[in-house]
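Repro:
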Amino acid sequence: MNSTTITTTPTPAAQTVVRGDSAAGCHQARRAARAFTDRLTPAPGPDMADTLVLVVSELVTNALRHGGGHYTLELSAGPDTVTAAVSDPNPAHPRERAPDLNGGSGGFGWHMVRRLTHHLTVTPGPRHGKTIHAHLPR
């Protein structure tokens, strides 16, 4: 006799955080990402939670610096994946640039996000902007 077991993983509903062009917005996004992982059942490991916070921080910082100064962050989780989706009003896709090793002007963020995520997509919208979906293994 065959038996089928269906299990569900309780996860919080997607959380949305909208902030403007301030460092406080980055801090709020990091806090929201940490709180989100803290509420997941089963809880992800501390390394995954730290990685999500770092990816969110980089994507939000890039949205503020290069994406028009505003962002929307949506966090969601499934049985195998945690996703951070960051939208901004600039339709231009992120581009890699050579990291500045001497002047401190950056260039490391997009490289880091690409290495830390399991899957990364950039889609048009909302409106005229774009959304970056960063998927991390749970």
